[in-house]
Design goal:
Order of helices and strands: EEHEEEEEHEEEEEH
Helix content: 25-40%
Oligomer: single chain
Strand order of the largest sheet: 3-4-5-7-6
Mean pLDDT: 81
Low-confidence stretches: none
Structural class: alpha+beta
CATH topology of the largest domain: OB fold (Dihydrolipoamide Acetyltransferase, E2P)
Distance between the termini: 168 Å
Length: 284
């Protein structure tokens, strides 16, 4: 009854021993000689007008009041605080605990995501102040594309890879094996191929091994095709040689025929001249 806030805090945040305060009597039990008092009732209930002062979509600056494993409690004003879920802190960073992102007492910019007036609860967001970069990442980190990355975390199930633009990807142990057969080490910078991109789950699966394995497969596939092209080219060359050879033989044959005709022509001329002389002598 000290604050309209639903966020539990210590009484020491409000009062100290010896303080004089004004209070409202809430209940009175004469038999037990007890009464309950309230301090918050001296002020108007801020939740009565919460949907107009802090409407969904409005932006505000809040004060970080408390951490939990699942998020940050941030106070907009006395009696009004909300929860920023850990998944709503950043679009790109993998945050294990809110203390990695902000500090108690720090200011944090938020946007109102949801209002539960009946239960006096607000859902706040921080990352929503910026556009979703995964819309752009979808066009950059396409499946099959290769990017340089740095191994920033190693554990039994794989490795976390820091990529350009402040984004992180994941690779299983078999996908961080190098061409020499050894596993990559922490802080090592290597090329990684995108083998899966999931915008909704904000997940990128990477592989270093595939960068050289796929290249080797492509080379094996291209080699037989190259041999076929060479064979076809060789066959075409032999065919051309055979055609030229036939043409050469034909030309030689025609040349011989022409020579024979040229040799026979004078003989025919002399024979005709002899016949003409004999005819003249007979007439005489």
């Amino acid at each position: 009854e000290m604050s309209w806030s639903q966020h539990l805090r210590s009484a020491n945040d409000f009062l100290k021993v010896g303080d004089e305060v004004e209070a409202v009597i809430l209940t009175l039990d004469r038999e037990e000689r007890k009464m309950s008092l309230g301090i918050k009732q001296l002020k108007p209930d801020p939740w009565a007008t919460i949907d107009t002062k802090y409407a969904v979509g409005t932006k505000h600056t809040a004060k970080v009041r408390n951490f939990t494993n699942f998020g940050v409690f941030a106070e907009l004003e006395e009696g009004v605080d909300g929860l920023i879920h850990i998944s709503d802190l950043s679009w790109t960073k993998k945050i294990k605990h809110p203390s990695e992102f902000t500090q108690l007492g720090s200011d944090i910019d938020v946007v109102v995501l949801e209002i539960d007036k009946e239960n006096s609860r607000l859902s706040l967001g921080h990352k929503q102040l910026e556009e979703n970069p995964w819309e752009v990442f979808e066009t950059i980190f396409t499946e099959g594309s290769i990017h340089e990355g740095t191994i920033v975390e190693l554990f039994d199930k794989g490795a976390v890879i820091a990529l350009p633009y402040g984004i992180e990807g994941f690779a299983t142990p078999k996908h961080i094996v190098k061409e020499n057969g050894k596993s990559a080490k922490l802080d090592e910078k290597l090329p990684f191929k995108v083998i899966e991109f999931n915008k909704d789950a904000k997940r990128i699966i990477l592989s270093h091994s595939r960068t050289f394995e796929d290249e080797a497969k492509n080379n094996e596939t291209e080699q037989p095709q190259t041999e076929k092209k060479v064979t076809k080219k060789a066959k075409a060359t032999l065919g051309d040689i055979e055609a030229l050879s036939e043409l050469k033989d034909q030309m030689i044959s025609e040349a011989k025929d022409d020579m024979l005709k040229a040799q026979e022509a004078p003989k025919k001329t002399r024979s005709k001249a002899k016949e003409k002389t004999e005819d003249t002598e007979d007439k005489e």
